[in-house]
Amino acid sequence: MPSGALLFQSVILGLLLGGLYALLAAGLTLYFGIMRVVMIAHSAFLILAAYLAWWSHSRLGVDPLLSMVVTVPLFFGCGVLLQRLLLARLRPVTLTMMSVLLTFAIAVVIEGLLGYVFTGTQRRIQLGYGSASFGLFGARIAVVKLIAFGLAAVALAALYLLMKKTTFGWALRATIQHRDAARLVGIETDRVAGYGFGIGLATAAVGGTALALDTTIYPSLHWHWIGPLMAIIVVGGLGSVPGAAMAAMVLGLMQSLLQIPLGTTWAQTIFYLALFATLAFRPQGFFGGRLAQRF
Amino acid sequence: MPSASEPTTAPTAATAPAVTLARRPVGRIVPAVAVLVLAAAVLSFPSLAPNPYILSAGVVVLNYAVLSTSWNFVGGFTGYISLGHGALAGLGAYGTALLVTRAGLPSFVALAVAALLVAALAVPIGFAALRVRGASFVIVSIALVLILLLVFQSWASLTGGSRGLVVPRPFPGLLRPEHHRVFYFLFAGLLGLALLAWWLIDRSRFGLGLKAIREDEDKAEALGTPTFAYKLVVFVVSAGFTALAGGLYALWFGDLDPVFQFSILTGSYMVLMALLGGVRHLFGPVVGALVVGFALEYFKVEFGNTPLHLVATGLLLALVVLFMPDGVLPAIGGLLNRLSRPTQSSIREVTAAQLRDERAAASAAEGTRDRGDAAAATAGGRPQSTRERA
Amino acid sequence: MTTRFRRMQWMTALGATMTLALAACSGDGGGSNTADDPIVIGISLPLTGDFSEPGKGVQRGYEAWAKITNDKGGLLGRKVELKILDDQSNADRVVADYEQLIGSDQVDLVVGPFSTRLVVPAARVAEEYGMLFVEPAGAAKEVFEQGFKNLFYAAPAVANDHYNHLADYLLALPPDQRPKTAAYAAMDDPFAQGTAYGLKEKLAAGGIRTVVDEVYPPNTTDFGSIAAKIAASRADLVVGGSQYQDGVNLIVALQQLQYQPKLAAFSTAPTNPEFAAAIGNKTEGILAPTGYTQKAPYPSNKEFVEKYTAQFGTPPEEDEANAYTTGQVVAAAVTAVGCAEQGACQQKLVDWVRSNTVETVVGPLSWDATGKPKGAHMIQQWVGGEIQIVLPADAKEADLIYPKPAW
């Protein structure tokens, strides 16, 4: 029943959405790789960044994209501090479970503070080009969605280059693969882990800005994001950044296409069905992910 | 890399030597008296409550206590932290309500059937969730809440969706204060049942095997404990009790809405309560429920109409995780021991070796494994554990 | 090990006993009714959480009513005092709040909270304690199907009747001008869905084909896919069962896809003062039902708008007006019956409201046996950069524009 035009439009929307998922899931994967930590607060920081973008636009009149000049370094610093001051304090034997609770607590605190400062009112950045779009083979692509996708793509590419081409990236990958061995070859794994956390949180700053461009934000929105993101990192294989990116694109596309026959609510269940299917049939994930078997 | 599936460790070594020095003239009478006093306090509460509101607050706290005790079957014995138990309570609530409204079963038959159904459903859920350890288990538990929320919202023709579901009162003739009183005793009975089950498992070989999983799953498996089967069984028991609590709540409260039944916050409150009280203690979750129940009320009064109550709840959870991962009960126990130490030191000085042990154990976070009861199961044979058992 | 464990249990028991005893002692009686005491009105509102924005609007409406009433000497010669608790947008809390207000604080009267999801559980508490329960926000028809005998909705019409005037208008058009197809998108919320489905039932019965029927959860933020479906259907008419922000998002997403319907109707959102800026001022022709207008000619409304604006600096919106109306209904009952306290008085108040008509800022209100108001909503449309009443004909400020200009 759906026409070709609608299918094509949905594919485009799905890819644009998948790009954002990919960036956010990359950050979540990074934390897990470094410390075996499931960072529930990732999406809370995402919403925080979105609020900062909204605030700088509506109160200071600055283009929301410029807010990243502040938020990216700020979040990087927060990530380093979060790792060094809080997560590193937890007992290693109970780290995975306790870090979930600790980051959960952080998420709730951020939500509460956002509600306190900005109230529970839903906010949306009002851009002059908010409803502008251009045609592509009969489909319409909204300018803001394309900017958001571009941001995600650039950030992911930068992350990839950082991981593959720099000494720090080499140290980070070594730390992820085998922390004790990395320490033995002279890598300061504690510092690397802290910086790795900072980078993960910096992706949330970019993602939050991209998110703020085209959607409504409100303090409790982060619950809406954390579920799909966690499903993505499991499907992609815990600890594998390319795996998470692949899973994000595939699931984003499927969500968008399933909305045509099923409607918005049922389409969201695809993330959790994929999660349960992955754990039942292929616990190590569908796109790599060597770590998942053990954790 | 050590096993990552352990939520708490027992009291740190700093308190351990002192414990052995504590007087133990109390014998077996004290716990019996304690249970009696506790039961008397719980049962006399309704007649002391000055108005129905206090009584209904008591019902809520008892519900919390049952929920966190049910959670503690998994969390306390195996160390697997589930944030998704809210979903099981929601399933119990909706199961009971649907069996009453759609299948026409009597209320309490529906409650029992719903709890059995949820327990049965917990088998495949547990099968998927417990195959994986640590991180994946937590993710599955959260995903469970989120997917059930979506399903119960969307499947409006069955569940009523966002319009909600009204559960008929089991005792339609009762006035509201009487309704609260009856359900207060029902919840108290359920709490007693859950505590009894926990106590029995705690003393059994089955419980010993579960605690071995908590301490070191790989080692337990190597020693022949059927870890997966044990985990699954205790998960199903936990799910059954959680569903009973949820179903009883549905019969008491009367109105169900997916948004409130399938909420991650509910599950996180259960974890907070159990952790705060102490997951290794029979009454830990009950104490946690009392504290959290009062804290939530206090935050609400204190912070009025700002969402700072969320901040306070979050900070409380963070403080417990960072500084009291063993819960309030061991922390208070440790404090009392420290206070009574001067009298003890006149009897017996702490040796230099003990001091060194204490310092080492207190400073090095790693390696402060529990050397409590589970030491017997894993046969760790560490020096500290033998000393404590001595 | 065992010793310590035993002691733990003992301490637990002791602690629990003390806490319980404390809890039992802490409740106070209160609630004597001498003539000089204020009349305390208990309210639970969502001041934090998902419904906090409209919740605060309702709070302002109640506060304005209390102030205006007290400035005129109060009720029955007694001052009016509001006791407002925050229910955190949570059904468990709203019930606990009314338990506290009625049982522990011994308030004299209670009035309703905000949002249908919270009204039903709250009304049950009030009903079972025999309290009159006039409420400003439970507009969905389900509220009136619960068999409540003490509940009254203080607004002109329930959600499903909001678009009645529009349905009559469309179905009265000549067949060649009448829209042929309609697309509906509604938030999964009893109120928002009620508005859209009320119109859908009437139009479908009148032969206007439904081509899209979407329901989205309240937390939806990305409307691209829903908009794509609506745009692909090329429906003549698009109806949004919306609250505020989802309506804005859906309109923007539709505009991004350059979909141009002949008529666009959205609940709630278009009447918001920030609406025009939020969708980039492309508002021309958008329709919305409303139960309240600041320009309404009823005598109490002039006073309300004037004094509310003086108190809060901005003119009142619909949420504020509904709360004020609630206050007016309760005040009328109390004045007529001559009492305001718990007990037998409440049933007298209920009986009075059931059998009388009350003059309010939204016009004269009366109720059927289920507490449903017997009125209809007006239809407003953005005409010439301003939202104006276009239906019904006897109240209109401008002519309805159909088909609407492109957005």
From TrEMBL, chain A:
Transmembrane regions listed in the UniProt entry: 6-30, 37-54, 66-87, 99-119, 139-163, 192-213, 225-253, 260-281
Bilayer topology term: Multi-pass membrane protein
One Pfam family hit: BPD_transp_2
Keywords annotated in UniProt: Amino-acid transport, Cell membrane, Membrane, Transmembrane, Transmembrane helix, Transport
GO molecular function: transmembrane transporter activity
Protein's UniProt name: Amino acid ABC transporter permease
A GO BP annotation: amino acid transport
Subcellular location: Cell membrane
Major place of residence: membrane
Similarity-based family: Belongs to the binding-protein-dependent transport system permease family. LivHM subfamily.
One cellular component term from this protein's GO annotations in UniProt: plasma membrane
